[in-house]
Design brief:
232 residues, alpha/beta, 2 domains, two-stranded antiparallel sheet, 38% helix, globular, FA_synthesis, lipid biosynthesis
Length: 232
């Protein structure tokens, strides 16, 4: 493989990830290249998987075949693998090699529909986190009645401290600016009510931390789920 070019977006695809892999993964790449799924800029793919399973599928999609490189691997992360097991025993997997090539600067991003826990663990192990961020989070952009918004974390962490929630808010602001194009996004802390006494101790402490972080975010306060989708 060669390093990514400045005029293109190189996306690493874990072809072995997901319940219907590799067929659905390759089909998804074809939708992007065909323009069915809009994408800014020129895209090409680095596809990681077992050749005996991926190459027959890839041969059916000539557009993907012409705009990708294939990386043969000998292993794959299973949906039943614990994150700790994947870290120790899946270092020859498609997921591991894809994330490793991101670390090397050979691709711009990694896409996997595979084991989420394993992906988060492998990514944190190989890529680390940026300064002042202790834990990764999964972010998703969703529509509301007025516009779109980003919510995090939606599954990377079972329990979160107040400091972690503050860090998620900071990352959410960065996501909203970079991906959603917002110049001054507001931050709402999801809770069971809008009163300051509502919620767990960690949520209440996070409220105080976010309110004090005026230089980093425009803090709205507590927000209930139904209000989020109304665009408040």
């Amino acid at each position: 493989m060669t390093e990514i070019r400045d005029d293109s977006i190189s996306i690493a695809l874990d072809a072995m990830g997901g319940d219907s892999a590799p067929d659905v993964v390759i089909e998804g790449a074809n939708l992007v290249l065909s323009g069915v799924v809009p994408c800014d800029g020129k895209v090409h793919f680095s596809i990681y998987g077992k050749k005996e399973e991926v190459l027959p599928v890839l041969a059916k999609y000539k557009l993907v075949e012409a705009n990708s490189v294939f990386v043969d691997v000998s292993d794959a992360v299973s949906s039943s693998d614990r994150p700790s097991y994947a870290l120790r025993h899946r270092r020859r997997s498609s997921m591991w090699h894809a994330v490793e090539d991101l670390k090397k600067g050979l691709v711009s991003a990694v896409v996997s529909a595979g084991n989420t826990g394993a992906l988060m663990a492998i990514s944190r192990h190989l890529l680390g986190t940026i300064h002042s961020i202790d834990r990764p989070a999964i972010a998703v952009a969703m529509p509301s009645q007025k516009s779109s918004f980003v919510v995090l974390d939606i599954g990377a962490n079972i329990e979160c401290s107040a400091d972690a929630l503050l860090q998620f808010a900071i990352m959410g602001v960065a996501f909203a600016k970079a991906i959603l194009g917002r110049t001054d996004p507001k931050v709402g802390l999801l809770n069971v009510g809008s009163e300051e006494v509502k919620g767990t101790y960690a949520v209440q402490e996070a409220f105080s931390l976010m309110r004090a972080a005026k230089s980093k975010m425009d803090f709205y306060g507590y927000i209930e789920a139904e209000e989020v989708f109304k665009g408040k």
